[in-house]
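Hi everyone, sorry if this is the wrong subforum. Our group has a chain we'd like a structural model of before ordering constructs, and none of us has done structure prediction before. Sequence below.
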Amino acid sequence: MKKYVFIILFILLLSSCNKIKVREENNRESHIAVNKQLNSADSDTIEKFMNFNQIEQTPVDSLIKKYPPLGDKTFILGKKDGFITEFRAGLSKQFTPKEIRSRDIKIREVTWASSNEENLTVWFEKKDHKWIPVAHFIWDKNAVF
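Answer:
Right subforum, don't worry. Here is the predicted structure as tokens:
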């Protein structure tokens, strides 16, 4: 009997891991929805969408101009305001502990609203005078970190 319980728990664990992976893959294609007024006299709004592939292919300053973010912060990874917190956990997969300790990685953290319920944060690394996306995170707007 214990053997069957263990097997069932193991299968459930594996299936939940697959769901996480599918969600991460789906997040890669997530959209940023930005409400823009058509003009000041007209109260109608249109929604503009952008997928993560556009983020990878478009300079961050152009994205920010076209899609004003909720937040835009620049910091040195591993320094006072650039510590890797639970929110920034994805960055620890992109850089080795030794690279982080060197404290010479310049990061730009930009957050957009991706839907009524979620936000999208993208971390860009400064390389050769360009901001290159290195990680992203889609999170519930009500989440507390």
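For your construct planning: The chain has a mean pLDDT of 74. The helical segments are 2-28, 52-57, 60-66, 97-102.
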